[in-house]
Amino acid sequence: MTYTVAVVGTGADPDSPDSNGYAMAYRHARAYERLENCRLVACADVVVENARAFAETFAIPPERVYENYERLLAEVEPDVVSVCVPPAVHAEIVVGCAESGVVQGIHCEKPMAKTWGECREMVRVCDDHGVQLTFNHQRRFGGPFRTAKRLLDAGEIGELARVDVGGPNLYDYGSHLFDLCGYFTDQTPAEWVMAQIDYSEENLQFGVHNENRAIAQWRYEDGTYGTASTGADSTLNCELRLVGSEGTLEIGVDGGPALRMRTSGGWKTVDTDGDGIHGPTPGLVGRAAKQVKSRVPFLPVDRLTPDAPTFIDRAVADVVSALDEGRRPELAAENALQATELIFACWESARRRGRVDLPLEVDSNPLEEMVEAGEMLAASRIAE
Q1: All residues at 6 or more sequence positions from 21 whose CB lies less than 8 Å from its CB, including other chains
Q2: Which residues form the GFO/IDH/MocA-like oxidoreductase domain (predicted)?
């Protein structure tokens, strides 16, 4: 079956001065273009100039460029929609697409939504309408993570005892890390979370608050523990560590390899099929070609180098394949929901100053409520 695809929230062209550099809609679109059974047919953005630039890049007819996503759905009736707007409006658009009655699959950018209640509502509505909902936690498809999972499942480090993650924050960047925790623990539910955070400086990313620093611990139902350390002075020397009864795996080592393993014989670097932690690592030819292209942009150097699929390319391919085969996708909304519950539970634990048992029974965004009430800045002043 050939699927018609629309993108909502094109953003600015990544090569324009107005772009924030992420331009996720362009990455989604290029992933669909790689698939023979997908056809980009429409796009929408509240900044219609952005939508027009996107349409020109991907040969979408001018009459299929929209400012209003509801009108796009009514007139085009796409099979699949990629939602690439900021997370504060994810829920509104995902729910609107699902309730339109025309969409079969929705692939949404991460993090899920601004509040825990909105996260659950998106999943509920899509389930009620039989719409496949996925979230773009594409790092699951990267070589370092897939290789580490194979080694873990093969018993190379014994029984998994603890998963440690470290990064800039719990929510925006941390969304990937918590999703990977679910990946390595086979989506085992967590029982409780305990955390403390610092918000001494305003930290808004894409319209949503992120803490400056956090320390967190949680426990899974099978007895495995998780820990997180975020901020500029994170205590971890890598992005993700798997601690087993007989060894350790570390992914994204600071200044080191993408993946290494320690057993009784000491540390050794592990091959990751040419992937770094964020995407394929270009070889010497690829790097040279990029330098040539930057100096002489009209030369078709892309044809001279292997076009390795990015993690997003692999993620979108699985999303479409799952829809075609009627199976559960790797990036199923339930997986994202499990990861996101830990994030909101960390903030709720900080608000309660104690352990939070799961399932999480709040609908709001605890960090946002604390910031708006002045509690976080007041606490930092007391500490000073």
Answers
A1: 14
A2: 166-250
Closest CA to 211 of 109, 351, 19, 86: 351
Residue that the structure tokens 């509690």 belong to: 375
Least Cα distance to 49 among 34, 71, 67 occurs for 67
CATH class belonging to 140-276+338-375: alpha beta
| Nearest partner of 238 among 281, 282, 285, 177, judged by Cα | 177
Query: pLDDT tens digits, residue range 238-276?
Result: 999 999 999 999 999 999 999 999 999 999 999 999 999
Strand ranges (E), 36-111: 38-44, 65-66, 80-83, 105-108
Residue ranges of domains in the chain: 3-139, 140-276+338-375
What the block records as the tokens of 201 is 């400086």
195's enclosing H/E stretch is strand 190-198
Q: Which helix (H) or strand (E) holds 249?
A: strand 248-251
Report residue 209: phi and psi, to 5°: -70, 140
Q: What is the pTM of this model?
A: 0.91
Strand bridging mode 248-251 / 240-244? antiparallel
List pLDDT tens digits, range 146-205.
999 999 999 999 999 999 999 999 999 999 999 999 999 999 999 999 999 999 999 998
**The CATH fold of domain 3-139:** Rossmann fold (3.40.50)
